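User: Here's a chain of 98 residues. Predict its fold as tokens.
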Amino acid sequence: MPESLDIVRYVDENFGERILSEQIRPEIEEWVKKLGHYYNHLLIPRFVKMDLAEFKTQSAVDYFTKKKTESIGDFQQNLDETANYLVRLHQDLEILCH
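Assistant: Prediction complete.
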């Protein structure tokens, strides 16, 4: 299955005037790096709560949790900090509006 950007490139190259730019905007790159410091704290603890095939067994959940706890810390603590992470995310999203 093609990746999303592959599909976008195909449409851009084959239908109408090309509008896609491969130029990386430094301000967007910096914004993505900034979010990279905390967005996994919001996402990763929720993965094991979703009905994903990868986590059908408790051993799979335990392995994933142990592995990711090494990089983001305790899952429950991250979930407890959701409100704080969302405040940061909303502030960072607001930057894109200006």
